[in-house]
Structure formats: C-alpha cells, structure tokens
Amino acid sequence: MLTLASRLRALDDAALRRMIGLRRVSAHGIHDFFDLAEALLDPDAIESTLSRLDRSTLAVLAVAGELGAPSLATLVESLADLGHDTLDAADIAARVDRLEELMLLVAVDGTVRPYPAVTAQLRGWPARGLPSAADLAGVPAPTPLAPLSATDGRFTERLAAERAFAAVSSIAELLTELAREPARELSRGGLGLPDTKRLSAVMGIDVDEVAPLVSVAARAELIVLAGGYWGQSPAGEEWLVNGAATRWAVLAGSWLDALPTDVREILAQRPGVAWGDALHRFVAWLYPAGGAWMDERIAVFARDAELIGITARQATSAAGASVLVGDLDAAVATITASLPAEVGTVYLQHDLSIVAPGPLSSSIDARLRTFADVESRELASTYRLSGASVNRALAAGEDAESLLAFLASISVTGIPQPVDYLIRDAADRYGRVRVGALHPDDPDGASYVSSDDAALLGAIAVDQTFTPLGLSPVSATRLQSALPAHTVFWALTDARYPVAAEDAAGTIVHPRRHEFTAAPRTDLPDPSIALVETLRATDGGEAKAANAWLARQLDAAIKHRQTVSVSVRMPDGEVVDYLLEPASVGGGRFRARDRRADIERTLPLSSIVSITPAP
User: Fold this and answer.
1) pLDDT interval class at 550 (50, 70, 90)
2) Contacts of 99 (CB under 8 A, 6+ apart)
3) Which CA distances in Å does 244 have to 184, 312, 332, 450, 478?
4) pLDDT over 90, % of the chain
C-alpha cells in the first residue's frame, strides 16, 4: 500500500482526477493518499474494475500475476504459449499501459508487476466459476455471429425500412402533441397512465411502445424535461421540417453516440449479422466478469435498434451496418432508397377533408397541421379542416389569404367552394372575442374577455365549461377573471370560440401555447476536484507520508492487538529490534510494552526503520 500511495502522490492533479474517474472512486472516507490506496486495493473495488475489462486485457493482468514480475517479452511469450490469439507486442504493451493507468499494476524497470491484492482476486476466480489465467488466455471465442442468408437479408431490409418509417412518423406525432400539451413526468420516473394513453392514441402505437419512443426522442434531444414536464425542444421543431431520411439519421446518430464504446466495438467488427443469443454468448466470453450489467446494456440498445430499424428481428440492416461503423452518410443513402417516396401534392375534397396520396413532404405536413387535424396517419394520410382548426392557425398569425395560397400551391383538385368559404368565414369571425391582461405589466395577473357581440359574450358567461375561470360581468361588453390572460385565452380556444389575444394597445398578438423547452444545463461540480484538493492539503511531503504510513501500521496493530517487531535507529546509528505490543500513537510518538524487557517504551516515529508482524 505504501508503494501505491507514493505512486499516487507523484501523479499530477489531472492524471489523479482521471484515475479517480476511471476507477469510480467515492470521496467518502478518503482523507489522505493511504486512504485512496486502500480504497483502490479493496477487493470489491478491484472486482468492479475487473468486471469492465475485456478478456485479452484480463489475460495480460492474470498471466503477469502468475509469473510474478515478468518482462514484457516474457509476458508476450507466455501468453502465446497459452494460446492467446494476440501475439503483437505493441498490443500487449498498450494493454499494460491501460492497466497501469487503472492502478492495477506497475510497470517499472522493464517488468510488469500486478499488485498482490489484484493477483489474489484473480486467483480466486475459478472457485467462483470465473476463468483462470490459463482460460483467459487460451479459451477461444465462441462461434462467430452468423451472417444472414440472401432471403433473410431481403426480409431484414424490408422490415427495417418499415420500422424506420414507423419510428420517424410516431416521433413526429409525439413532438406535435407535446408542443400542444406537455406530458408530466412522475416523481418515480416515467409518464403517468393518462398521458401515456393520450400519446399512444396520437402516435398510433400500443401503450407499451410509448415509453421506449419517448426515450429515443429524449436521447436525440427532440424533447426535454423541464419543470416536471416533457415538451418539444427547439431542436425538435427543426427536426419536424426535415425529410424522413434526415429525421431518421438524427435518431440513428444519437443512438450511436450513446452506444457504449465497448458494445460499439463488438458490433462494428461484425456488421450485417444476426445478434440474438450468439451476441450474448460472445459478450459473456469477451467480458467474463461483466455479468448482468453488460447484458442490460446490450438489451437496452438492442431494443432501441429494433425500434428505429438499425436491426430487424435481431439482424443488422444494411443501413444499420453503416451506422455501426460510423458512416451516417452511407446509412442515409441506404435508408432513403428503402423509404417510400415523399409526395408534395394533396387532394382537397368538398367534405373538407385533405387526402395525401403518399407520405407528405415534412415541410408540407408541418404546415398543414397548423390549420387541419390529422384523421389518419398511414402511407396515405388524411387531414380535416374545421372552424376550430382554422382558428388555431389564425391565432398563430396566419390569415385567410396565406392559407388559401398555400392550399392552392399543393392541391391537384383546386380549392373547393366549401373549403374557401370555411376559411374566409373563420377569418371574418376571428377576433370577435378578445382576451387581454387587466394590468399589462403583470401578465400573470387578472384578465378580461371583451366582445361587441353581446349574445356571444353572454353565451361565454353562462358556459359551464368556464366555471373554473370565475368569469364575472363588469359591463355589457366585458367579463373579468382573476386568472391570467393566457389561461383564459387557451380555454376559449379549446372551446372553439373565435377568440384572439390582444395587447394593451388593442393589437392582436399571437401567443404560443407552450414555449419551447430548453434543455436544463446543470454544471455539477466534479467531485474528483474536491477530493484531489483534500489529498494535496493533507500531504506534507515524503517525511510526513512515511510517518503517516508507520502510524497507520501501528494503528492496525493496536486495533488487532498484534505484537510487532520494530526496528529503531538509535542516535549513534545502530539499528535495534524490539518486540513490542503497541498501545497508542500520537504527536509523532508511539507508546508500547516491550515483551522481552517487560517495560513500557515511548519511541519517536522518525526513528523507526521498519515494522513487521511478529512471528
């Protein structure tokens, strides 16, 4: 431990923080470098680190431990003799460097020396059903992941394309709905059942599929959680106007970025193959101590890969193979050829329906949704116009001419008279009811509802839907509410009244129902910085460290009532050995009973040369 503590002291702050992060060291209970060394050599801490090492790295560590302190050349030769398939000395040297960075061994004077506690941990593996040093080096990998047949490959491509299209479409519906009405995150995590059912209906998927797709969208930062609610992000709005292939690339790219490096390396080396049980067997071989944590990582990312078409029935698609090797451009080209072609025209019907003969261009679809409701979402989607849907667009800043001009530009059937009439009538009626803040400098204060149409205002006043608003008449043309203007405005909008919001000057304004949610940026302090500062503050140099180590050994002897042999350098330079029973340590001295002379001695720590357990 003294050797490791001295080595830790010699690291610069950056290297020390990196090591603390790599070993996942908790600052709890660590006050000096000896505490840190003790924490690193704790059996549980060693096992946790070993569980995250691949088989070849473990073989290097275990074989070096069996050999004691081999040179790199001897280590390479021994690994080869055991059947290790990596004979490149540079590769072995790189693994030694990584193990040294993890403080599992020390490479000095051309030798590789694992710490005894690490070697002891590995030697105990066979008794727990884990591989020995010889097994780590010599047992070959299981049967490689099987390549797909031509028939299976065609099926995989077709199914993957369908899933990619379905995921993009469902997440588009998710974003649109969350922009309209955010979904609450429960305190224990996950969405509540009412919100889940609402999103399930909008997205056209089963209830069980909502949470995974919400996770996919959140990982891509298309939606963010703020104030306990999931809402659309600015990135989500930009995503909605992109083409289907570009949308898919965002989902695939975020999946790849979040994929653990070790898992990515496994899959990238074997693109175009079936995953399934063969992958789990390979992972179990590659990470023999990985256990459930590695299986769980594989399971989560395999689920999401299936959802977005990177795989289909646990087989990698052509686009997915390109994603795994990091070539998103090739993946987009592949998925573009697989997805149904987008269309840019629609059929306007006299019954106020709008029929798209295929998947609509994203920009057209986004614009249509602002003033028409989606009735069905398949390859050929159907939208429907209504007074309420048109009023929604008018509240967002559209007018009759802009809506009619847009429809004329995409319709192959012209604009039927009922459509023209509906839009112009809604525009004429829009703003017959106005909502504003009673005190403009307090937008969250009381509000008013006004209209020159006394009959319409009277209908609002007696509408039982608005009882929670507490509307009370103050004149023939005005009602008043203690609630904010935006609350009253959206309540009237939902009830399909021709309402407009206005400012203090009476000018119509176009409020957004839910402001874009910005991803919260919480810069959490790095705990390793405080830990390193603590370690440096308690470090008094080599002399103090040596005394601290002696004191620690004596404390252990006192705790376990252990007799020790203490070598003490006398003033004349002679070294005298005492057989002592330590009683206490403090003030740079320790007090003990001399077993041979049967007297009590008090000795300065600075005079002690060594301490060893008595036989």
Assistant:
1) low
2) 57, 60, 61, 105, 114
3) 28, 19, 10, 45, 48
4) 29
Go through 405-416 and write b for each residue having 16 or more CB atoms within 10 A of its CB, e for each that does not.
ebbeebbeeeeb
**pLDDT digit string (tens) for 273-303?**
566 667 777 778 888 988 777 777 777 888 8
Mean pLDDT of 486-515: 81
Longest dimension (CA), the chain: 118
**Overall average pLDDT of the 425-437 stretch:** 88
* Cβ-proximal residues to 69 (8 Å cutoff; 6+ apart), any chain: 111, 112, 113
Residue 615's SS3 state is coil
Q: Give the integer Cα–Cα distance in Å for 31 and 532.
A: 10
Q: Do 379 and 313 touch, CB atoms closer than 8 A?
A: no
Crossing angle of helices 150-180/291-307, nearest 10°? 80
Is the pLDDT confidence value at 218 over 90? yes
Beta bridge partners of 449: 435, 479
- Cα–Cα distance between 328 and 321 in angstroms, integer? 10
The pTM for the full model equals 0.65
Give the span between the Cα atoms of 395 and 403, in whole angstroms: 13
The answer, yes or no, to whether residue 544 has pLDDT greater than 70, is no
Separation of alpha carbons 554 and 564, rounded Å: 9
Q: Give the pLDDT of residue 247.
A: 92
Distances (CA, A) of 193 to 186, 218, 229, 303, 536: 10, 19, 14, 22, 52
Structure tokens at 61: 């560590």
Cα–Cα distance measured from residue 118 to residue 47, given in angstroms and rounded to the nearest whole number: 9
110-116 long-range contacts (CB < 8 A, ≥24 apart) are 110/71, 110/72, 111/69, 111/70, 111/71, 112/64, 112/69, 112/70, 112/71, 112/72, 112/75, 113/64, 113/68, 113/69, 114/61, 114/64, 114/65, 115/4, 115/41
CB of 265 closer than 8 Å to CB of 282? no
Tokens describing residue 519: 């991803």
For 154, residues 6+ apart whose C-beta sits below 8 A from its C-beta are none
For 145, the token pair is 């992941």
Give which of 402, 406, 429, 404 is closest to 417, Cα–Cα: 404
Specify the residue for token string 């993890």: 102
Residue type, 79: L
d(CA 286, CA 51): 11
Pairing status of strand 373-376 against strand 105-108: unpaired
d(CA 24, CA 293) in angstroms, rounded, equals: 15
| Residue 356 dihedral angles phi and psi, to the nearest 5° | -95, 125
φ and ψ at 398, to 5 degrees? Answer: -75, 170
* Rounded Cα distance, 173 and 604, in Å: 77
- In this prediction, residue 213 carries a pLDDT of 94
β-pairing verdict for 183-184 and 223-226: unpaired
Cα 65 off chain centre by: 37
Number of other CB atoms surrounding residue 369 within 10 Å = 21
